[in-house]
Automatic annotation (TrEMBL):
Cellular component terms per the entry's GO annotation: cytosol
Organism: Denitrovibrio acetiphilus (strain DSM 12809 / NBRC 114555 / N2460)
InterPro entries on file: Cytidylyl_trans (IPR003329), Nucleotide-diphossugar_trans (IPR029044)
Keyword Secreted attributed: no
An example molecular function term from Gene Ontology annotations: nucleotidyltransferase activity
Superkingdom classification of source: Bacteria
Keywords, ordered alphabetically: Nucleotidyltransferase, Transferase
Entry keyword Disulfide bond: no
Protein name listed in UniProt: Acylneuraminate cytidylyltransferase
Length: 281
């Protein structure tokens, strides 16, 4: 049974273009993407760590970085991320896929290892995650997916939402797939911390965290992060106004959230159209 961590990444981020190619620590010459890969390579439960980027010209620079630094990579569809994951897993012969995004440069190798062990020891799950419910900081998220489930999702998914976000086809069908959550026995807190990278405020915070922790331990983990934020609560303020991306279980929940946002903007005609669609389903 081969286990591969597949890290999705592209240059054309809408909020902060080129974010995964920024230095971390600042001025170090080490990119955010490299920090993610270095951390995953510390995992004992992984056979491969692969970057899954797009086949768009703009992402040649990611491919070049991977080539120059010895990182394995695969290039596929820009918009159909589900297919990109499936093709990457096929190319590397993965039976188990660990999904991590490239904007999480504080990903904890120990958490990944314990998640994979939990998944393997059970032996019946098609999918598990560590954010349903959230028990770690935003930025320590991961999913473990059985390749056969991923392949079935890729074969049958026909909604843009399902293709862009990889796992909704699976998580939206609990009658077909066995879905679980990884919750550690000893909770350390931290679910109120945001250390993922979406915009400039996030990058400022990550630079501060790395400045305080990286020199002492290049692979500082969850406990060190939580301890740092508890001792220096002003860190929360750096990106306090940033809205965390919400991942929905299904398209209906996303539409309900869209109605709320449209109503706040007084775009009632659009929200009424969505309401009518929800009532008809």
């Amino acid at each position: 049974m081969k286990t591969a961590a597949i890290v999705q990444g592209r240059t054309a981020s809408t909020r902060l273009p080129g974010k995964i190619l920024r230095d971390l620590p600042l001025g170090s010459g080490i990119t955010v993407l490299e920090q993610v890969i270095r951390r995953l390579k510390k995992c004992r439960q992984l056979d491969y760590v692969v970057v899954a980027t797009t086949d768009e010209e703009i992402d040649d620079q990611i491919a070049d970085l991977c080539t120059n630094t010895g990182m394995d990579f695969y290039r596929g569809s820009q918009d159909n991320v589900l297919n990109r994951y499936t093709k990457t897993a096929e190319a590397f012969g993965a039976d188990i896929v660990v999904r991590v995004t490239s904007d999480c440069p504080c990903i904890d190798p120990d958490i990944i290892d314990t998640m994979v062990e939990f998944y393997k020891n059970d032996g019946t799950f098609d999918y598990i995650s560590n954010n349903r419910p959230r028990v770690y900081a935003h930025g320590l998220d991961a999913e473990v997916i059985r390749f056969t489930a991923l392949k079935e999702a890729d074969r049958n998914a026909d909604l843009k939402y399902e293709m862009e976000h990889v796992s909704p086809y699976i998580t939206g069908r609990p009658e077909k797939f066995k879905i679980g959550s990884y919750i550690p026995e000893a909770l350390t807190g931290g679910e109120d911390i945001r250390i993922t990278l979406d915009n400039k405020e996030d990058y400022t915070l990550l630079c501060a965290v790395y400045d305080m922790l990286y020199e002492k331990d290049n692979y500082f983990g969850n406990e060190s992060i939580v301890e740092l934020f508890r001792s220096k609560p002003w860190l929360y303020e750096i990106n306090a106004n940033v809205q965390n991306k919400v991942k929905f279980e299904n398209i209906q929940d996303e539409l309900k959230q869209a109605v709320k946002v449209l109503d706040l903007q007084e775009l009632y005609t659009a929200s009424d159209i969505i309401r009518q669609k929800l009532r008809s389903e």
